[in-house]
Amino acid sequence: MAQPQTKAASDLTDLLRRAAAHHQRGELTQAETLYSQVLARQANNFDALHLYGVLLHQRGRPVEALASIGKALAANARAPAAHSNHGIVLAVLNRHAEAVEAYERAIALKPDYAEAHNNRGNALRALSRTEDALAAFDRALALKADYAEAHNNRGNALMEVGRREEALASYNAALAARPAYADALVNRGQCLNALRRADEALADFDRALTLHPHHAVALKERGRLLFDRGELAAALDCYDRSLAITPDDAETHARRGLTLRDLKRFDEAFAAYDRALALKPDFIDAVVARGNVFYQMGRFAEGLAEYERALAMQPDFAYGFNNRGNALQALGRHSEALASYERALTIDPAYTEAYNNRGNALVELNRLDEALSDYNAAIGGKPFASALVNRGSALRYLDRADEALASFDQAIALEPNMPEAHWNKALLCLTLGDYERGLEGYEWRWRGATELTPRGFSQPQWRGEDVAGKTILLHAEQGFGDSIQMLRYLPLVKAKGARIVLELPDALIPLLGAMADNVTVFNRGTPLPPFDMHCPLMSLPLAFGTRVETVPAEVPYLHVPAERRERWRARLPKDDTRRVGLVWSGKPSHKNDHNRSIALGRLAALIATPGLSFVSLQREYRDADLPVLAQLPIARIDDSIADFADTAAVVEQCDLVIAVDTAVAHLAGSLGKPLWVLLSHIQDWRWLRDRADSPWYPSARLFRQSRDGNWDSVIATLTRELAALAAG
C-alpha cells in the first residue's frame, strides 16, 4: 500500500528537479509552469515556494515574490537562503529596515554566509548607515576574499562618503576577481571620472559596453562624461541609446534635456523634462531644470515661475532658492534676489554658489564690502574660478586694483581658458591705462566672455600687418557709442593703403562726411563684397598698438551733414542764453544702466541754473521721468529725431552737453563739443581711473561718483560748475 505514495513523492521530486533545471537555464516560463504544478499538488512545499518566489522576483513581480517566500519560511524558518532572498525582495520594495532583519536572521542561522553579509550591507547603505554597511561588506570579504560583488558594493559605499581613492581600490579588487564584471567597470568609471581621470573612465565605460552592448547605465554614464567634455552630440546619442533600453528612466530623460538645452534645442529640452516629470511627478530637479531652460532663453519671468513651483514642492530646497535668486537678479529685482539667496544660505550655510550669487546681488546694490565678504566665503573652502572672477570685480570697484588683478590671475590659474577671467582682467588693465595687456585680453570677448558672436568669416582678422593694396572689412560689433569712438581710426587704416569696406548701422552713416571718401559703406545685413581680411571696430586699437599716450584724439572726426545743420539751426535759433544739451538716462536694457542713469528729478536744481536753456537729447524716457519732465524747463525734440545725424545737428547748436555715459556722450566728444560726463563709480573702462579728462575726447570733463554710489556730491559739484559757467 505504501508504493503509490512513494511514486507520488518521486513524481513531485522529479517535477521540482525539472523546474529548477529550467530555472537555472533562464527558461523562466517553463520553470514557472512546473513550480505551479508542484504547488498544486503540495501547497506548502518549501523548495517550490522558495524558488517560485525567487523566480517571481526575477520577473519583476516583487509583491507576489514576497508572499511566496513568506509562505516558504512559514513552512521552514530554518533556511538561511530563504531568509536572505526574503531580504532581497523587501529591499526591492524599499522596505530596507525589514530587509536588514531578514539578513540578520539568515546570518544567525549561518554566520559564515558571505552573501547575506553582502546583502545586509546593501540594505544598510539604503538606510544611510554607511559605516555599518562598510563593516558588513568587510565581514563578507573576510569570509570570501574574492567576492567580486562585495568588493563592488564596498566601493559604492565608499563613493557615497567621498572616499574615492579607497573606492577605486575596491573596484580594482572586484575586477581582479572578475575581469568581465560590467557593473564594476561602470562604477569604477564613475569613480575615475570623479577623480578627474576622464580618459580612464571613458575606457571603462567602453569596456563595459563591449561586454554588454545594452548596458543602459554604462551608456548613461558615458553620456554624462561626454557632456562634461562638451561633446554634446555624442552625449545625446548615448542618452538616446540608453533610453531605447530603459525608456522609463526619468533621470536619463532629464540628462537628455540638459544636453538638448546646451545644444539650444529648447523645445526638445522641454519635451525631455516633461517626459521625466510624467514618469516621476515629484522629480523636483526636472522642474528646476525647466526653469533653467527658460533662464537660458532669457525668459526670466517664466523661469522664476518654475523655480517657485519647485519651492512649493519642497520649501527647504536651497538650490531652488538660489536659482530663484538668479531669475530675480536677471529681472533687475536685486533686493528680492538678495532675500532669495539668504534663504538658500539659511537652509544650507555651506552653499558656496549661493554666497557667490549673493555677492553678485550685493554688487548690484552697491554694497561692495559685503559682496567681497561673500566672495571670500565662497572661495574659503575650495576656490572656484567664477567666484574668484566676481571677487576680482568687487575689488576693482573698491579701487583695490592689485588685489583684483591677483584674484583674476588665481581664476586663470584654476581655469586657463575661462573667458570671463581674461575678459575682466582685460577691463581692469584698460581702466588702469595698461593698454598693452588690456587690448590683447579684450579679444576674449569673442570666446564666450560676452554675448557677442564671432561673424565666422573665413578671412583672417587684421592685427596691424601690412594691408597696402588689400581690401579690409571694418565692421561694427557693439553699441552706437563704441562705433562712434572707434571711427577715429578710419583715416589711419586708409593711410596704410588699404581698400576699405565699412559696415555700419544706418543711423551712423550720415556722420562720416569726408571720412567716407574712397570707402565702400554698407549697412549691417547687406551682402558684402569680397575682402581679404577683416577687423571689428573695437579691435582697431589693438591693431594699431594704441597706448594711452598715443590715442588718436584729433576732433572733430565726425561731421554734421549740411542740410541737417540748416534744419536744426532754424528749429533752435540762438538767443542770449547758453544752451545745454542734457542726457540723464540710457537704455534700460543696458547691463549697467541702473548705475549709470539718474532720475531726472535729482537734476532739478541744476536745471534751475539762471542764464541757461536746456534741451533734451534723449529719444526715450522712463515713465517715472515724464511727469517731472513736463514740469521742468527742458525743450523736447525727440519727435523730430530720425537718426544720429539729427542728434549731432542739435549737439552742434549747444554750447555744452551734459550726459551720463551713453552714445550721445561719445557723439558730442567726436564732434569736439564741450562735454561734461557724469560717471558712476562702476564705470566703463574707456574713462580710465582717477582722471577728470579723457585721452579719447579732449573736450570732455569727467565728473565721477564716489564709491558709495551716491550721485548727490556729483550733482552738487556739477551745479556749482554750471553756475560759474553761466555767470562767466
Automatic annotation (TrEMBL):
Domain of life: Bacteria
Pfam families reported in the protein's UniProt record: TPR_11, TPR_16, TPR_8
Coiled coil: none
Keywords associated with the record: Repeat, TPR repeat
Record flagged with keyword ATP-binding: no
TPR repeats mapped onto the chain: 80-113, 114-147, 148-181, 182-215, 216-249, 250-283, 284-317, 318-351, 385-418
PANTHER family reported in the protein's UniProt record: CELLULOSE SYNTHASE OPERON PROTEIN C, TPR REPEAT-CONTAINING PROTEIN MJ0263
Protein name, entry field: Tetratricopeptide repeat protein
Annotated organism of origin: Pseudolabrys taiwanensis
